[in-house]
Amino acid sequence: MSAAAAAAADEQLRKQLIQQLFDETGGAGGSGGASHDTDGPTGGGGKLLLHARVSEERESRGVKDLLKVSFQSKDDDDDDDDDDKGGAGKGKLKQRIICLSIKKGTKLRLSKVKQERFGSLSIVKYWGLDEIRSIENCEQEGQVLVNLGKIYRWTFEDLQRKNKFLETLVKLCRTHTKRMPKLINIEEEASDDAPKQDVVGREATTKSQSLAASRELDEIEADAPDAQDGEIAAAMDAMLQIDLGLVLSDFEWQANGDAAALEERLLSELQALEAANVHDIIQSETQANIVVNEIEQALSELSQIDDWLSHYTSLLDSMGQDVHQIETQNKGMQVMSTNQRLLLSSIEKLLGSLRMPGYALEVLKNEPLDDPNGVNECEMAITKLMDIIQAKFPDYGDMAAIKERKALLQGYANAFAKRLCEFLSDYFQKQAEMYMQDKSRASQKGSLKLYAHESIEQKLFKFRNLLRWLKDIDARGHHELQMTYVREIVRPYRREIQEFIEVLKTQHTQRKAAQDELDFVFVGQGVSVSSAASNAIKSAIRSGTSNLTGERSGTLSSGGGTSGGPGSTGIKQKLESWRPYRKKTARSDDASSIATGDDDEGKPSRYDLGSLKNSSIAGSMASMDLSPEERMTPDEASCVQAVGHALLKMVHIMVREQNFIIDLFSITKGVKGMGSGSLVSSAVEEEPMSPSGPMSLQSWQDDLGRPREPIKDPKAQKRVQEMMEGIFEEVREQLLATVESGLRHDQSYSVGMMVHIEFYSKEYANTSHAFVINLLESLQKRASTIFEKFVVDQIKAIEETKVTLRKRGGILPFIKTFPRFVDRMEMMLSNWDGVARKTVDKAYSRIIKSMFETLEAVAQQAGNDPKAASDEKDFLNIHILNVENMHHFYAEVRARKVPGLESSVKQAKVLYDVNMEAYCKVVIRKPLGKLLEFFEGIEGLLKTGPAEEVSFHIQYSKSALKDIIRKYPGKEVKKSLEALYKRVDKHFTEEEGLLQVVWRGIQEEFTRQLRRYEELIAKCYPEVSVRLDFTMDELLGFFSELARDH
Amino acid sequence: MGKNQAKKTDLPLHKIIMVGSGGVGKSALTLQYMYGDFIEEYDPTKADSYRKKVTLDGQESFIDILDTAGQEEYAAIRDNYYRSGEGFLCVFSLCEQESFQHTQEFRDQICRVLDDEKVPFILVGNKADLTSDRQVSTREGELKAKEWGCPYMETSAKTRQNVDEAFCKLMRSIRDRKEAKGGGKAGASKAPKKKSSCMLL
């Protein structure tokens, strides 16, 4: 079969199909069974989109039949498989034609057409597109499984057609169904054939666009691709506009039918409709009424509910208000209860701080104050009391009850203060009385003891806190107590110090014995000096004259004898035991000092006082490492020490007493207005190191002896001064007097005193101990005065030597004394470099001046002495005196190396040299006599005239020269030299050993003279061959001979 | 005062004479010994006498030192004081050979004047501190001393080296000689011999 023939056959089939489809559309739509052979004109209002021959197989069982789809397949007489499902046609292939068509006004359809035996076609069945449930493209070529409620297997003869069918169907389903059928195995294929699908789609739309253009469009496939899709809708609209015909046909109206019948039918239908309408309306009214009633009922119920609600709301409102009110009230009550609690605690606190235990008040009233526990109890009680009284109640301070309470307590406090005052006043008296009664405190005869008041300190120590309190609470009572204390304590002090001073005096009296040590004073034998000191010395010298030639050490014991009495102190021993003031020095010479000490101190109080002394002495020694005594020999030391230590003791006692007073009465503690806090705490805060703080008695007492910082508060300072004066003023005068009388025997001690005083002054300078400083100043003044007097006396003694000197040769006594004086002074100073040093240096220069003047005067006297002058008219004595004395002074003083004396040493050296030279010149006049005069005359002439003229003078003529030379032959000269040597030997004492020095000077002078004479002879008498009778060599020979002879 | 005179005369007195050329340090040695001073400046001495109490081997005695002029115009003038000397401290400067040579003259004169070769004599080389200026060796000094039969010492007046030793040695030999003679001037001194070192007061 050719392609053209096939196409033509296909075209034929297509025409038939169109006719069949669109003619019997209505019948087919109406009932399935009716078949109308209507050959209506083609294009009666639809379009065949596609058709294809298939062989159909009902897919009901698993039987697999290969179906051959072909246009000329053998006929199947199984005509209707749709109706007859369970027919025998199962498994058989039926030849069918599947069409896709669109009809005006309707939807797209899928139709199955059966070709009858005679070529006529009949629609077996049709489906809406929506009925397609699934489309499956089978793997077998040409087969498609379509589920249309039942599953049909269609095998296409033509593959191309099958594809076209599938594409078109899928496309239509996509665009025109609500529910897309399930596609199985199609998507890929569709996408593979995408261009074809497009073509199909276009073809389909194009065909549905218009009836008229459908065929042409059908054939034109590839062209006009664009702008066709939108036209499908337009085609549909166009079909709806011409829908009336279809409507009519729905009413089975035929144009050739009866209009009237139609009208009637229409009217009846209208009526029926209206009736139904009215019926409906009537029917619905009752229901509406019911509804309305219901609604009304509902409304009334609602309003009822509403009423309830508003009622509840108002109830709730009022309840809310109540709650709020309750809350407010609750809060108020809470505040109130808190306040009350606070009030309660405040009141409790107040009461607590105002509570004063009864036993405490009882303690204050009755506790005995003379035992430490009682004092402690009282302290605690009073602290408590004061805490309450002074407690600050910032908010309720004005409260009457509090004030009242405080006043009451204040009353207790005052009462206690009064009791304390009375007690202490009495107590002071008792203590003082006890000291007075205590025999052990009475000073032993000859022992220098001065006790501090340790036991009083100890006893009063415990009251210091109460006294401090008293100071705050009752200043006047406090002050009165101070006065009482002073009044009482002064009694034992007075007695003790008096005794002490008495002992001191005795010791100094004993010191008188050691007159031999006074060899440093410038007093000559038989001198009568008016001053007391000199008198004492004088008498001593007189009594000791017999011993003066003895050994120095020997005189010590003999000196002891002079003071008389078998019980007198052995000085040596006293000096050995270095601290004579401590122990009464021996009654028995050989008693060991320790044994003696024990003897003397073997009293009831020994233990107590012994420890005190040890401590105080140790303290004093520790503070005095520079003290002068240590450098001195024991005997010297003892003298200075006695005074110095007495002073130290006194000073120590005063310092201690002052510190004690200050601490006991808290004088330096500032009074803080209206009373300051409690006892202990205030003490601590003011002065943490203060002894009145929580300090042990021991450490406090240890500290008492130490000097303290100056008191800043002038009032307190004045108060302390007042008390100190009260206690010690009397003593002070006594001490001053004692010092003076003590020094009377050896005023050189005044230097030692000055050193001591200076030492202490420095130590106590810038301390609070104004009284001591003042005392030291007075003593200093006194000592200076005494020293001044001493120096004046010395000078007087030196000057009096002029008158009293018997022997007018040799070393003068005061020159001999001076080095010892220097020694004495230096010993007293012991390298002290203070005011005392300056004072002594001044004294040196005054004394030296006096000495040199006196020496000069004595020399003059010696020169003028008629006895001496007969022989020594050339005042040789003056030179001898000067030479020897200056030599002595120079040698001795220089050896002492006192810086202040250096200039005097030089001065002495100059005087020595000058006088030595002068002596030599003068002394040779005698042996040379006229010879010397002659040549001196010539020299005198030479001053006025020329040498040549000398011989023209009668006295100096050549013959005169010869005469004079003749008078001095060598022998004579030699003899006179010998005589001269003897004279010179007599002139100078062996003591100074100056003979050789002087003789050497004389020899030198001699040779000088001789040389000069020879020169003068040669000069003045050149033409004369006159010479001296002896030559220089001869003269030297004389010297040598002289030397051999002696 | 008689007392002091008595005291002094009771004690033995040893008279020493310082001899030697000018500027060798006789006065310096003397002053150092006497006062512990050292004076740099040179002031030629004519003659000076010094006396001092010393303790020699535990016995107190006086030393009398006559410090003489080194540059005496006429040697004969020395005769007299040589006569008064009991011992001689002959000083030369270790820094000056000439002064060492001169010691021979002094020695000779002393021996001549005293007519005594055994007089207590000590040769002293002074200025030992100036080591760099030294001109006389210790050996030379020792040889000379050996020749004279006397001790030799080197001293420094500046540093006080051997100063006390020299004086003490001389004093000791004076004392020994006096004791050997058994009387003479210092008859009073009967102190036991002690060889402990000397002490200065």
Automatic annotation (TrEMBL), chain A:
Keywords: Coiled coil, Exocytosis, Transport. It comes from the Eukaryota. InterPro entries: Sec3-PIP2_bind, Sec3_C, Sec3_CC. The keyword Transport applies. Residues 193-205, 703-715 have a biased composition (Basic and acidic residues). Belongs to the SEC3 family. This is Exocyst complex component Sec3 PIP2-binding N-terminal domain-containing protein. It comes from Polyrhizophydium stewartii. The lineage of its organism: Eukaryota, Fungi, Fungi incertae sedis, Chytridiomycota, Chytridiomycota incertae sedis.
From TrEMBL, chain B:
The keyword Acetylation does not apply. Residues 177-201 are annotated as: Disordered. InterPro entries: P-loop_NTPase, Small_GTP-bd, Small_GTPase, Small_GTPase_Ras-type. Residues 191-201 have a biased composition (Basic residues). The lineage of its organism: Eukaryota, Fungi, Fungi incertae sedis, Chytridiomycota, Chytridiomycota incertae sedis. Signal peptide: none annotated. Keywords: GTP-binding, Nucleotide-binding. The keyword Nucleotide-binding applies. This is Small monomeric GTPase. Pfam families: Ras (PF00071). PANTHER family: RAS, DI-RAS, AND RHEB FAMILY MEMBERS OF SMALL GTPASE SUPERFAMILY. It comes from the Eukaryota.
